[in-house]
Structure formats: structure tokens, C-alpha cells
Amino acid sequence: MRYVAEEIQMIKDQIGTQSVTILAKRMNRTMVALEVKIKRMGISNTKSQTGMITAGELARILQVDRNTVICWIINHELESQQRITRTKKRFMFINIEDFWNWADNNRNKIDFSKLEPNALPPEPDWVDEERKVSKAVTNYKVWTKQEEKLLLEVYRSGKNLKEISCLFGRSSDSIRNKIKRLTENCYS
Prior knowledge:
Blueprint: H1 5-14, H2 20-27, H3 31-41, E1 53-54, H4 55-62, H5 66-75, E2 81-85, E3 89-94, H6 96-105, H7 126-132, H8 145-156, H9 161-168, H10 172-187
Antiparallel strand pairs: 1-3, 2-3
């Protein structure tokens, strides 16, 4: 049975957004027949077809943990798209241009000195300047029970956030959030 123009367009539009099995059911075709058609069309439902990079690939290029990139997506508004490749595997894809726009506004989160030149082309002009500056990007440090107790004692003694943050070597936001969580836990 030949594919009509609407079916071919549907394959082009839906490949990667839905699994091959769902597409095959929707088109009333077998999965094998649909895979053969996809191959003959010269497209595929693989990661390379999207023209974007996965969160894991971006993490490897930036020399950070993959979960750091996922955190940027969830908590810091790095744009991404979830796509399905092969039959079931889901990936978070990031458009390189979207990444550079996000990175421009979030330069403090990335150590550009670890980034190889033209690893993510096209690089904006400001990246060369940022690459020259080696940053100590701070990652989350787990609070120990002793630190939590000391934090509450220091906070109750009347010190301000800036003094406490210098004492603990953490940001003011980190101190404020931890105090909030600790005091909520005490009273709830």
C-alpha cells in the first residue's frame, strides 16, 4: 500500500515527537513498514536528525554533570524539547542558539575556561572574553547536621545574612533559604 502525501508529511512532522509504534498505529501501518519508509525517505528518528544536542552532550562539552544541565532546564529556564528516538528512548534536546541566549544571561553558572573553542558553533563574540576568565563556579554543598545547628545558633544571636554567609562560605540566598527551611521544620 502506497503512502499518500498527507502520510508522508505526517511522518516528517511527527518523527521524533512520538514513538514509531504510536505513529504506526495512527497511520494503520506496521512498525516495520513505517521504519522502512522512514529509512527510504532519508530521515531517521535518531538524535542526529534533530540538529540539536542532548543535555548529556552539552554537559560533556561544558565539563559539568548531566544533572546540572537538567537543573538548568528545570529551575533556570534553559529552553529544551523532549523528543523520542528509536521506539521508546526519551532525550532532552537543546537548540544551540537557545543555549547561547540563555548562557548570555546566566554567565555566572558556567565556567567558560573549560569550554573548547568552537565546541558549540556559532559562538557569540563575548565567549572569548569569558573564556579568559577562570571562574570558580560554586555547586551545591550539602549541609551537615552540625552546620545546621550552628547556623540556627548564629542566626538567633542576631547576625545578619551577609555576616553569616561569610562565616559559612555560602551565598546569602543559600543561607536565607536554609534558615527558612530549618525554621519551617521546627514549627510544623
